[in-house]
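Q: Structure tokens for this one, please.
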Amino acid sequence: MADKIRHQLFLPGPISDRLEALAARPGASKSAILADAVTAWLDRRGTSELDDRFGLRLDRMTTALGRIERDGHILLETLALFVRYELAIHAPLAENDAAGRAIAAKRFEAFVTQVGRQIAAGRRTITADPEGSR
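A: Here is the predicted structure, written as tokens:
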């Protein structure tokens, strides 16, 4: 059995009456009711402190993640529309056009290399600052 410490406290009349009514039920005691109530209050207070401490930060992170997700969807839609447009305006290469396929392969390799360089350097082709694009 855990050590119990005696406390003397004062309750307003209406609260004392409600406590008496609850304690009159079989298997209930004032000590158990008050211990449960104090435990619940302390647990809520601890949760509230965590919410106060981290709630604003979590809200900001949620907002930022929402923007990142939105930007990702915009980028994917932009890329998809660009690819669709490019495929629509350019005629496909003939099966026997080896020279055209070789040029296309070189251009694609140059494109992939340039994307790799931009990402490795942390540069962006499209920036909010017009000076950064020069």
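A few notes: The mean pLDDT is 86. DSSP finds three helices and no strands in the chain.
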